[in-house]
Description:
Blueprint: E1 2-4, H1 9-16, H2 22-31, E2 36-38, H3 43-49, E3 56-60, E4 66-70, H4 75-91, H5 93-111, H6 130-141, H7 160-173, H8 176-190, E5 205-206, E6 214-215, E7 218-219, H9 220-237, H10 240-257, E8 258-259, E9 264-265, E10 268-269, H11 273-276, H12 280-283, E11 295-296, H13 297-309, H14 321-331, E12 337-338, H15 350-366, H16 375-389, H17 417-434, H18 440-449, H19 460-481
Parallel strand pairs: 1-2
Antiparallel strand pairs: 1-3, 3-4, 5-6, 7-10, 8-9, 11-12
Helix pairs in contact: 2-4, 6-19, 7-8, 7-9, 7-19, 9-10, 9-13, 13-14, 13-15, 15-16, 15-17, 17-18, 17-19, 18-19
Amino acid sequence: MMITAVWCYWCQIMKDxxxxxxxxxxxIQENYxxxxxxxxxRPDINFRYNVGGWPTTAVLTPHGGIIAGATYxxxxxxxxxxxxxxxxxxxxxxxxxDRARELFLARQTRSSRVGIKVVSQNPESSTLTMLLxxxxxxxxxxxxxxxxxxxxxxxxxxxxxxxxxxxxxxxxTQEPFYRLIVEKTLSSIENSRMFDELEGGFFRxxxxxxxxxxxxxxxxxxxxxxxxxxxxxxxxxxxxxxxDAGVKTLDFISRDLFDPESLGFKGSKGADSSYFExxxxxxxxxxxxxxxxxCYVSSSARALGLFVEYSGALSVTHxxxxxxxxxxxxxxxxxxxxxxxxxxxxxxxxxxxxxxxNALVVTQQKHTSLYKDYSLSxxxxxTTAIDALYDHNSGGFHDTSKTEDxxxxxTIKEKPLPDNLSMIRAIIRYSDCYQDFQYLPLIxxxxxxxxxxxxxxxxHSAEYGYLIALYLELNTSSNTxx
Length: 482
């Protein structure tokens, strides 16, 4: 099984090189059943089988257990791995199956770590405090790069979730160091080659710490998250350059990624250094990189929510927001990926519920006649998501509903932190908008369920801290209302 993505440069190289090698093709045809899985179409499969990046190359038993795995492989490396695994399969099939079973059980044990022992509707005490938020913030600040801005060294990712937490803490505490981190990082990114000054939008990451060696793919979700941080920071810090970069990014998203026929946003624009390193005039004489042919419910909803939130700063007239939102609500029950003429057939996905609910709540917060009243839809979708995916025994949401034909790792009920945070963010936003506090215990239980594992999720740890802070504010509002 190869897990790939249309935006992944090395995935395309491996498909166009390793997987057309005559010796590789012959050996696979004689000894294996090949499968190609798209990360964006099936995030549930990617979460369970990715072995450390894209492309993922995984060898499975017929029952879906993992025998071996690697990331990018040259033709010689791929053939060598396949021959080695095949030889082991012929010589010691029971031993190989035992090892696959051990890995499966280890994965089950790991997934069971997410949860709390006793779910209570009225918890007497909680470890969810601002002290925990401060601890998470310090953990993030420990990797801050004071020279170039950003966090970590090489490769350097923008980490919008960390920046969002820093900006929130600056709003709350007015501590200058938080402002310094946000302003330095965003200004450094905006002034670097990570930002496409000519067409707008941000590239995925930089291979160098100084942001000057970008990997040139533009992913919708990354650009939406970064545009929001730039717009929020530009507005609050009164820095017009940051606001302008955010607006220019939304211009790119609406121009290059919105598909009026499917009423969704295409997931990405592919990497092409030969194009993005050209000047403005030179680009007009060269075909731009291809965009993904598919739209995805979760990232399309996230984009729509941001466009609605900042509609006052934009002049977007070619997006019918109500029709687009209605379309996403319709897709929720059976589709994650769609075009104007096709939809996939996937189990219900938590990430889709979270992002669609959040986008609908944003329209209600705008209080304008431009948008329909989605109140009934919001409440119905929250109820549906809880009924289908919430774990009432130990807290937290499962990422998908298991189907009858699920095998291998798809039988494991996983609770990915990013998907849960998406849902909790939506429920917090709903609760604040409608001053409806009935879901406070569920929010707390879900956050507590990840207390022992959140540090394993990189920048999502920062979003976890941010949502704890929002939960505490919501809890204070509830106590005041009562």
